[in-house]
């Protein structure tokens, strides 16, 4: 599954266009490598997303093409959520 679609379906980022923009700016890394919007993600991958005043690290637990709001939160596990003191 594409990174931008996963972020939208899992509701880590609400809109796919926003997910695409964040990835194009180099603010998302998969397993330590900067990712593009079309990068394929798989179960077990670790995402580091820098957006707004925080950095979120999440592990992908499940992939689904469509997910209800209740099931979306089960697609990933938040490992850490850090507030950045200064935005670049």
Question: Could you please describe the fold and organization of this structure?
Answer:
- Helix content is 23%, strand content 30%.
- It is of the alpha+beta class and 88 residues long.
- It has one domain (3-83): Structural Genomics Hypothetical 15.5 Kd Protein In mrcA-pckA Intergenic Region, Chain A.
- A five-stranded antiparallel beta sheet has the order 2-1-3-4-5, with no helix packed on it.
- The radius of gyration is 12 Å and the shape is globular.
- The mean pLDDT is 90.
- Helix 1 (3-9) crosses helix 2.
- This is RQC P-site tRNA stabilizing factor.
- Residues 1-61 form the RNA-binding S4 domain.
- GO terms for molecular function: ribosomal large subunit binding; rRNA binding; tRNA binding.
